[in-house]
Amino acid sequence: MLVQWIFGIVGSLVFAALLFAAGISFREDESRAGRLFMVFAFLFSTPYFLFALKPEIISTLIIVFLLIFPLLGIIVLLLPYDPASKKIALSTTPTLRYDERDIMFSRRRLKPGSERFEAYYRNHPQKKKIDDAWRRKPGLLNPKARFYHPLYFSAAEASFDTVEYFHPHVQTNPSAEKKVIEPTVATAFIKDWLTRSGAHSVGFTLLRDYHLYSHRGRQEPYGAEIYREHEFAIAFTVEMNKTMVDFAPKSPTILESADQYLRAGMLAVKLTQFIGRLGYEARAHIDGNYQVVCPLVARDAGLGELGRMGLLMTPELGPRVRIGVVTTDLPLATDRYQPDRSVIDFCRKCKKCAESCPAKAIPYEDRQYDAVGLRWKINHEACFSYWCTVGTDCARCIKVCPYSHPDNIMHGLVRTLIKRNVVARYLALKMDDVLYGRFNRGKNF
Ligand code: SF4
Ligand code: SF4
Q1: CB-CB contact of 420 with 346 (8 Å)
Q2: Is ipTM beyond 0.95?
Q3: Rounded-to-integer distance, Cα 392 and Cα 139, Å
Q4: Which of 32, 84, 159, 197 is most buried (most C-beta within 10 Å)?
Q5: Pocket of ligand 2 (CB under 6 A)
Q6: What are phi and psi of 62, to 5 degrees?
Q7: In 125-171, alpha helices (H)
Q8: Under DSSP, is residue 204 helix (H, G, I), strand (E, B) or coil?
Q9: d(CA 309, ligand 2 centre) in Å
């Protein structure tokens, strides 16, 4: 009987697909998801096998519920259906440049009692009380911090210190002879070379004024105005190891951050030196020595969209990346910013990072307009203050984000569906909560 065979085949497919998902989850060290997929595999395939063995009890109602409804459901999920997203406003071009002196890492470098310290808080009295509060805490990578670990903290310090060795080499001394290279050829070569060197994604954009900080905050001369010296920017991402991020906010996370800042720094300096040998100006923007706001450059280079937590959301790894940037006058073929309303819509519905943030630094509300544009504005002071308590750079928001899952066939399929279908977005969000937990705690360490 044909219907008996159909039930048998569908049951086998359901069982195999869910067992495959369980296997992937166990490999990802997601045991809760793995166990649930195993339960689903037996639960959802059993009725099909039952009716395949006992065809005499199959009725029209059973066929509708077990074959027609699921088939319709799959068709609905596969269709490009996203009416609401079209109305979502895209991020706007910033009208104001960030002053690097205001970011937390610059404020952290101010020495109490120094002339620079006094001058900064004279000009920003509202920040003094806030900054005094985190200055009383142990601080990043401090042995008195909550998540201190002698090995991980020392290793992270070693990686951050090694990035600093690159600082004298962020700028090139271009060769006298300028080699003439087709922009498309240079672009393809750089993309291929960086990818083979470990970059996850690479993009190219025209360098805009709003990509640059207005004034220096971490490098001398402090407070000097920053001008646009190059026409192009190359942005790339490097992947943060999922297993290490899963421990967030404990000490392995800051080691992983430090290691990826080092990798991004090494790639950026290597690229800068290469461009110099071609006879062109270039500057690497690496940890502790930036003149650009990396997520804005990376977004405009087509590497992703800005999400609720204020980070770049890449299509394959979400926010689980670090960014490197090189600015240059080497002529390049540029990519385009690829606005992704599906990410903005997903972030509007999800709010998982906001709920999980121990510092309550991520907003629950929708994006707001300010001088920097339409965006979710993070409370960087609250975030940094928490870092000073725990001694790590936390990254809990990155850990819980549904876009942070590994780039494999299972999560790739989900990403493809949620990009084009609003029903899939709702379903993916609910399933993420069920499989990985809504208040996903960092793994024990
Ligand atoms: S956790 Fe959710 S709301 Fe936060 S950035 Fe990721 S998708 Fe957006
Ligand atoms: S790093 Fe931690 S404290 Fe900062 S925004 Fe993310 S979750 Fe919140």
Answers
A1: no
A2: yes
A3: 9
A4: 159
A5: 309, 357-359, 361-362, 383, 386, 394-397
A6: -65, -40
A7: 125-135, 150-166
A8: strand
A9: 8
